[in-house]
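thoughts on both lines:
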Amino acid sequence: MCHRLAVLEQAPLPLRCHSSSIHQTGAEAEQPDGDVLFCFGLDGVVCDLCGAITQIAWRAASQLWPRSAPGSAAVYERKMREVWPAVCHPHESVMLLRLLAEEGVIGGRSTAGRQGPVVGRSPRAQGTRGLLAAEIVEHWAFLKDACLRRWGVEDERVIQQAFLDQMADCARGDAATPWRPHIRPHQAVVEAINGSSRPVLVASPLPLAAISAVLEHCSIDPGAAAAVSLPANGRLAAHLCESAPAACATVHVMQDRLSPLEHIQLGWPQNGPQLCLHLADWGHSTPAMRARAVAVPGVDVLSDVRLAELMNVTHLTAVMDGVAWR
């Protein structure tokens, strides 16, 4: 595997080719410069999927709990952006959306207030106020488990499957499907991927068909990046080491949340290539995340200008124009 990356459970895919599809094997693949491999997270790094996933989460929530999410998906998008840094897996957006609905979406306060998140009873009970976005982000691990108990959900996979079903329906649709207009490419990153000769992989826990649809919508050139459907954890770390070109000396991983970077770091084999972990400052990362990242050995905060330098694309006008207008 000297010059191509494999997609999990798929045939090996060329990184630079001239086929008609982004992720189909082509007969004439150019040999990329394989000493460095770049792995991008999809949501928050290559593009902003908050609005698109909110559309899908609203459909899934409406299917699971009819009348639990009144109004349209657009009602929830602004508030979802405030709590989005809490999301580690896309299906958690379904739970967040219901929680926001129960909290009144805008988080109105009562005069009594309360200390910290309390989800054992209805937020509209006497003497309580809606949770603040910062409280949801800070305490999401606890809140998620408490919400599942309150809603009588014994297996979180039921919610995950409902999300995947809705995502599959959307991924099969054409460009007019409701979720696609809400995909916001980070143009400087898109142009950097298109303009670089380095091998590039885009990783996401979304289904492979959905990742491919998003990359196509973002105008990633055919063969410019390979997709892998894996969460950013030890499994992705192992996959990167297995898929890296034989001559690869360094792997750069870009995410917009600190937790996935820490999971990859923990799962990285000692005999693997040099690992460079970057927290993207243009994604959904919060100031608190970026401050914590500075203190984590092996992790740095990456600007899009520095990304252009790493990928040797600072000479491309399209890349630097995207940086300038961000």
